Structures are given as structure tokens and as C-alpha cells.
Amino acid sequence: MSLINIKQLRNLPSADVGATIVYNGTNNVWSNIDASGIQISSGTSLERPTTPAPGLIRFNSDLNQMEYWNGSQWVQIFEGTRKFVQSFVQGDLVSNILTVTHNLNDDWCSVTVYDNTRQIVIPTAIISVNANVVEIDLTAFVTISGTWRAVIVGG
Q: Three-class SS of residue 84?
């Protein structure tokens, strides 16, 4: 048995013949007679559906990313290069280690460090602590001068 609940029905002008309107009970979610765009469902990671259908698309407000259910896990939909840049000075280091917290949600990131003259430098070590934290060991440089940059690119 199917149920159709109509909150409002109106007569569309003749120019709108064949119009499609999707209504979520509060406002139009999508309409081909409205140029405002499509509103995709959104929520936090904890608010993900418990039994999603493969292909379900939503916006994850925790990750600030679109994601879809592939039938076994949630997969982020990325546009272009996922990159995080952090400028830092000597005072940002703890025991000459820079901890960078990014939002790439990726354990396999590439890290490039630039000194204050825009030259690429090779850190002593780079450690991926988790999917959103990288530690960059700069003990080989003893003291850094000026502002440096760490560029983290998701895999």
C-alpha cells in the first residue's frame, strides 16, 4: 500500500507544464521551475542512516564533505585536490615538532614543507598520527626563522 501526503497543490502556469517539485514537508527541496538549486540531506556522522541503500548521497556536516553509501561503507566525494595549508613559526613547535590538525580524513597524505624563502625542506620525520593529524619533526633545523608553511595533500 502506498501513501501520498500532499500539503499543498497549486495550478502551475502553462509555462510550467511538466514541472517537477520535490517537497520535504517544510519547503521545496528541488524544483525544475526554481533556479535556487537542490538541497541535499545533511547531518553529522552520527546521524547517518543505519540501513542506507547503495548510492544514497548526503552532506556530512562533521567532515564538511559530500558522501555516498557504496553498499558497505561511506565514501567522501571530493572535488579537485584536497589540500590543507598551515603557516607556522618557531613558537608553534613543541620540541621542534609541528602538529598539524587538518580536515582531509585521510591516513595517506603527502606533506611538503616550505621555509621562509619558499624552498622545500626535508623534515627529519613525518608521522601520520591519524586520519586528521600529522606530526612533522623539524629537529634537524634546530631553530627556524620567519614563517614556514606545511602543505598536506590528501591521497
A: strand
Q: Which of 96, 149, 95, 140 is nearest to 119 (CA)?
A: 149
Contact, 151 vs 112, CB < 8 A? yes
d(CA 32, CA 55): 22
| Segment 3-37, tens digit of pLDDT | 566 666 565 555 555 555 655 565 555 555 556 66
H/E run at residue 111: strand 110-114
What does the alpha-carbon distance between residue 89 and residue 125 come to, in Å, rounded to a whole number? Answer: 18
Residue 63 near residue 45 (C-beta atoms within 8 A): yes
Query: What is the C-alpha to C-alpha distance for residues 123 and 68, in angstroms, rounded to an integer?
Result: 36
Residue linked to cell 603557516? 87
- CA torsion angle 149 152 153 154 (round to 10): -170
pTM to 2 decimal places = 0.50
Asked if 33 and 21 count as a contact pair (C-beta separation under 8 A), the reply is yes
